[in-house]
Amino acid sequence: MPDITAVTHAQNIRYDRKAEALYIIDQTLLPGEEKEIRLQTIDEMVEAIRALRVRGAPAIGICAAYCMYVLAKSIRTEDRPTFLKRLSDYGQQLDAARPTAVNLGWAIREMMRTALEHVHDTRGQMLDALYERAVVIHEDDIAKCRAISEYGLSLLKEGDGVLTHCNAGPLATSRYGTAQGPFLLAAERGMHIRVFADETRPLLQGARLTSYELQRAGVDVTLICDNMASIVMKNGWVQACFVGCDRVAANGDTANKIGTSGVAILAKHYGIPVYVLGPTSTIDMACPDGDHIPIEERDGEEIKTMWYEKPMALPEVKCYNPAFDVTDHELIAGIVTEKGICRPPYTKSLKALFDDKK
């Protein structure tokens, strides 16, 4: 049986309370180098999120919670209105770094709510409450990822081939991950699943991160270019597509890494089910549909120069570089959450998740 401990229990985000320091694994250096960096200032935190040193919607949320705690500690005033204003301003700066991932704003709001709840406590008591809330957010994601992975694995059988796009494993979340979690659980249990990982242009998260994690975990993984998805589906090598998500609208439209909607369209043509895996914190019931999801647009230099010694296009060539696209709910066979698998119509099944008081 493969040893997946090093992967599934990697601490992509950790707060060392003894050293009073927040560390993340710099994902821009993987797979060549696994290195932790320390985040201390708002500028360092915003840069780390924007530059994808920390990435994946759940991981960004976890990181943001710890960031808010670190920033709260840095505010040296006993005047509570001033404290709350500065902390809120820091939160807005963090939130603006990646506008598509709903977990980022959610975690910031949770930390601000905690600060408000303890506004009349001593400074030490408030900081303790903020730290404890960040830990709860982190531990809650670990539990959710395990549950999502179990539900996802229930959709697969021995020998299935699964195509995945981008990275939704331990590095993007915590422990098992979301869309990759079922593959890691399968490996633990001796179940053979073949995974085809899209490289995920232009930042190559599938090549640099997904294939790295799965290979280390002993999963049967094959790396393919994004434009090879059609042929592996046509060859009959793929029985399902598993992808993560950065935001799910109330009608089931889903934002995920650019290229996901193309995968879903191809899968529809070949009769292959597409499953979206993510925690309920990624579901934005205030967002009616995909047209209302803000799509981050990134620097075109990521396309032309990022991975090459020489530019791959003339300097004057324009680039369009959206970080995400929206997959229509009609292309999605199921949305897998920690509470179970939602099926169409999503306006009802997603709403039921939040109506459940159990």
UniProtKB/TrEMBL annotation:
<comment type="function">
    <text>Catalyzes the interconversion of methylthioribose-1-phosphate (MTR-1-P) into methylthioribulose-1-phosphate (MTRu-1-P).</text>
</comment>
<feature type="binding site">
    <location>
        <begin position="256"/>
        <end position="257"/>
    </location>
    <ligand>
        <name>substrate</name>
    </ligand>
</feature>
<feature type="binding site">
    <location>
        <position position="98"/>
    </location>
    <ligand>
        <name>substrate</name>
    </ligand>
</feature>
<feature type="binding site">
    <location>
        <position position="205"/>
    </location>
    <ligand>
        <name>substrate</name>
    </ligand>
</feature>
<dbReference type="GO" id="GO:0019509">
    <property type="term" value="P:L-methionine salvage from methylthioadenosine"/>
</dbReference>
<protein>
    <recommendedName>
        <fullName>Methylthioribose-1-phosphate isomerase</fullName>
        <ecNumber>5.3.1.23</ecNumber>
    </recommendedName>
</protein>
<keyword id="KW-0028">Amino-acid biosynthesis</keyword>
<dbReference type="GO" id="GO:0046523">
    <property type="term" value="F:S-methyl-5-thioribose-1-phosphate isomerase activity"/>
</dbReference>
<dbReference type="InterPro" id="IPR005251">
    <property type="entry name" value="IF-M1Pi"/>
</dbReference>
<dbReference type="InterPro" id="IPR011559">
    <property type="entry name" value="Initiation_fac_2B_a/b/d"/>
</dbReference>
<comment type="pathway">
    <text>Amino-acid biosynthesis; L-methionine biosynthesis via salvage pathway; L-methionine from S-methyl-5-thio-alpha-D-ribose 1-phosphate: step 1/6.</text>
</comment>
<dbReference type="Pfam" id="PF01008">
    <property type="entry name" value="IF-2B"/>
</dbReference>
<dbReference type="InterPro" id="IPR027363">
    <property type="entry name" value="M1Pi_N"/>
</dbReference>
<feature type="active site" description="Proton donor">
    <location>
        <position position="246"/>
    </location>
</feature>
<keyword id="KW-0413">Isomerase</keyword>
<keyword id="KW-0486">Methionine biosynthesis</keyword>
<feature type="site" description="Transition state stabilizer">
    <location>
        <position position="166"/>
    </location>
</feature>
<comment type="similarity">
    <text>Belongs to the EIF-2B alpha/beta/delta subunits family. MtnA subfamily.</text>
</comment>
<dbReference type="InterPro" id="IPR037171">
    <property type="entry name" value="NagB/RpiA_transferase-like"/>
</dbReference>
<dbReference type="InterPro" id="IPR042529">
    <property type="entry name" value="IF_2B-like_C"/>
</dbReference>
<feature type="binding site">
    <location>
        <begin position="55"/>
        <end position="57"/>
    </location>
    <ligand>
        <name>substrate</name>
    </ligand>
</feature>
<dbReference type="InterPro" id="IPR000649">
    <property type="entry name" value="IF-2B-related"/>
</dbReference>
